[in-house]
Amino acid sequence: MAGLVVAGCSSGAADATPTAAADPVRLTNCGLPLTIGTPPKRAITMEQNATEIMLSLGLGDRMVGTSYQTDPVLPALRPAYAKVPVLAKLYPSREAVRAANPDFVYSTYTSAYAPDAAGPRKDLAALGVPAYLSRFACEQDAEPVFSFDGLFGEIRDIASVFDVAEQGERLVGEQRGRLDAARNAAPARSLLWYYSGTSTPYVAGHGGVPDAVSTLLGARNAFTDATQRWPAGNWEEIAERDPDVIVLADLTRGGDGDSARSKIEFLKQNPVTSKLDAVMHDRFVTVPGSSMDPSVRSVEAAEIVAAGLDR
Fold it and tell me: What does the pLDDT read at residue 22?
């Protein structure tokens, strides 16, 4: 799997350099206007997903802080990541954010702009700090359905902010090529995307990365009819739906049913799930938990699942 990761993020190995002086970049991001007069030099990313997008664009030398690492950093990005100050294990406080003197803040989750984190985007804007939020996590009117085109639009936004459009197009091209290789690579199957929990399992519903990956591969998300992206399920209903394959999120946070190994152990011991055909025949596919959220890792989820279904 490391080979796939390196291939997809090779562009992150070298620092990106801006082109000649550019006009101000003006965006409307989640309802707020953003104007970036000059490419930022002191950016902060609030979670690993945003961090890895920045590093994949070669922007490590423009970062003065990162936070909220959820998984081991992608191998190709580790050298660049090691040079970025870690401001907090989870979210830094607004005082810590201001102490870093950023000229741009980037988050993929609304929670990063809570009062006990970086603070509202409007407050940062009032201090002259543009704050970008993923289109899939807007406070209001977020894009209801994840799409890879939307993800690539976000990558292009960040590339334009930092005046590295060519690097952005290169990264998008790499990701599109990998998606095309994975597309329809396996027979149609019903997939249960099992994220976390044992007494109450959280599974992938409609509109998230797992739904998009399932469609891309010609498969069906077993809970695509759920209105939430991550609904709380129950094992009896899961047994009734009897998925062909179970996709396991491998989470490193150490909670109940987080790791893929603990999930498999539970599924094999639980009286209801142990009788599932997928469990009895070990039809499991394991993906990094963070690849189920919008990021440069989402393409990796498609590749891993395609390879697992093709066995």
Answer: 63
